[in-house]
Amino acid sequence: MITLALSKGRIFDDTLPLLRAANIEVLDNPETSRKLILDTNQPGVRVVLVRASDVPTYVENGGADLGITGRDTLIEHGGQGMYQPLDLQIAKCRISVAVRADFDYERAVKQGSRLRVATKYVAIAREFFAAKGVHVDLIKLYGSMELAPLTGLADAIVDLVSTGNTLKANHLVEVERIMDISSRLVVNQASLKLKQAPIRALIDAFAKAVAERSEI
Ligand code: AMP
User: Fold this and answer.
1) H/E element holding 21?
2) CATH number 3.40.50.150 is the correct assignment for the domain at 2-91+182-215
3) Where is the signal peptide (predicted)?
4) What residue segments make up the domains of the chain, in order of their start?
5) CA of 92 to the centre of ligand 1 (A)
6) Do 2-91+182-215 and 93-180 share a fold?
7) What is the pLDDT of residues 128-164, one digit of tens each?
8) Taking the CB of residue 132, how many other CB atoms lie within 10 A of it?
9) Which of 4, 142, 154, 194 has its CA at a distance of 20 to 30 angstroms from the CA of residue 107?
10) What DSSP designation does 142 have?
11) Mutational pocket test of ligand 1: of 120, 162, 171, the residue with most ligand atoms within 8 Å of the beta carbon
12) CB under 6 Å to ligand 1: residues?
């Protein structure tokens, strides 16, 4: 049995065409079913639904043979201990610094004042501001980062941005782009040895689908 760990939403939706390219159809719809283990048309392949930030933990510890998760999550978790054979070029976005439209970010950074930064991505934010020589107080949040500057909890946030609509709706502006993000395939190292043929076949089918799509 091959177990693939996915999270609901963007990554699940963007993975379906890749699975189809490998002749795998997921038989349950996670939006309407409460099942966490989803069958596929291939008796030897199943999908488990986990939180995005739990995908690396499942794969690293053998709860799943493979997983798909964002570069952001992998950096925060520490991707060591997993084989990362492919950038799938899905769920693309960027991780950026944003502030209230009326906050003078340039001035705050230039003056060397301590910036209060709210984020789920503490490791990425710490490294980014340290490299710039900016002193920050990091405030760890688990969601709705946009609220932090609006309520006075923080001066800035570090968050994923795709269209920019969420920032705009909350009167925030993107002031720095930290890095581009897309989702990667991760593989448990022991699974790769023990189930080499089916896992290699899956990696190859995904790689072919990604290459064909980038040619369009
Ligand atoms: P947007 O309004 O399109 O800029 O999307 C921003 C919101 O969607 C933020 O709350 C982000 O945390 C979330 N988001 C954007 N892109 C992704 C992604 N690839 N994966 C997960 N969440 C995302």
Assistant:
1) helix 10-21
2) no
3) none
4) 2-91+182-215, 93-180
5) 9
6) yes
7) 999 999 999 999 999 999 999 999 999 999 999 999 9
8) 11
9) 142
10) S
11) 162
12) 10, 70, 91, 93, 159-166
